[in-house]
Structure formats: structure tokens, C-alpha cells
Amino acid sequence: MSSLKRQHSFAAYILIGIGVYFLLRELKIPIITDFFSWPTLLIIIGIALLIHSYTSRDYQHLLSGTVVLGLGIHFHGLSHYTFWIDHWAVYPLIVGIAFIVRGLRTKRGGFTGIIISAVSILLIFSIRLPAAFDWVYDLTALLERFWPLILIGIGIYWLKKKK
Asked: Exposure of 23 by Cβ count < 10 A (0-12 exposed, 13-18 middle, 19+ buried)?
């Protein structure tokens, strides 16, 4: 599939998703009114990236599609469900799942995803770590404060990284 056709198919999936979103909004179907929010747009973009990656057999967008979809689902859950887990370790869990999803197709990063996911789940469900691991709380407090710098750094690294 040519690069131009791939770009058009991604744009087509986005247009279809946004069109369905606004059509359902106009129809005012009661069961889906909770989805008329900005996290739904993240969900649509994530699903479009995943569908595009699978249909074009170009799996480079599986990681970003899974992250965007996961963030959309997480933000939707936070705003609509009282049982939803609001913990900072959910974000690395989403990234870990994204590595696993990509690793299933590309055979790269799957083990990394398993490690990130396992550590995230441990941190989400651990009430209090043993005293020997108090440094984890100091580190997480630092990360909670400066996590945007980490995202900026990763973004710059990806821009500078040779393909």
C-alpha cells in the first residue's frame, strides 16, 4: 500500500469515527450519552490508529494507538465511574500494555511491556511497600511533580533518534 493511500485511509478512519460520534450525539440515544466528552475523541483517534495499523499491515502506530486509546478510556472512566482507579501508576500500565500490543505483531518490546505492566500493577495495588523501598515514594513524588519533563524528554529523544 502506498504511503499516500495509507495517510488517506487513516484520515478516512478519523472522519468515520468523528462522523459516528456526532451522529450518535444528534440521535440522543440515552445509553451512550456518557460518551459525549473529550475522552471519547481520544478513544476515536486511538481506535483509528489501531485499525489503520492492522489494515495497512504497518504496525508502527500500534504503540501510539494503544496509548491514546488507553488514555481515552482512563479519562472517561475517571469522569464517569466512581470505582475507577485514580493512581499515577495507571499511566505506565497503559504504556506497558501498548508495548505488549505492539510486541505481539512486531516481536519487539513485548518483554519490556510485561515488566512495565507488572511493576505498575504492583504499585497500583500495593498499599504500603516495605521500609527498604521508601525511596520509591520519594521517586514517585518527584515523578508526579515533573512527569511533563519526562514526556518532553522522550519526545525529543524520539525526534533525534535515527530510524
From this structure: exposed
Helix axis angle, 38-56 relative to 62-80, nearest 10°?
160
pLDDT per position as a tens digit, 82-110:
898 888 889 999 999 999 999 988 888 88
| pLDDT tens string 33-64 | 667 778 888 898 899 889 888 888 878 889 88
Is residue 68 within 8 Å of residue 39, measured between CB atoms? no
Distance CA 61, CA 12 (A): 16
What does pTM read for this prediction? Answer: 0.68
Any residues with CB less than 8 A from the CB of 104 and at least 6 apart, and which?
A: 110
Separation CA 157–CA 22 (nearest Å): 37
Q: Which residues contact 129 (CB under 8 A, 6 or more apart)?
A: 136, 137
Measure CA of the first residue to CA of the last residue in the chain; give whole Å.
Answer: 20
What H or E segment, with its residue span, contains residue 84? none
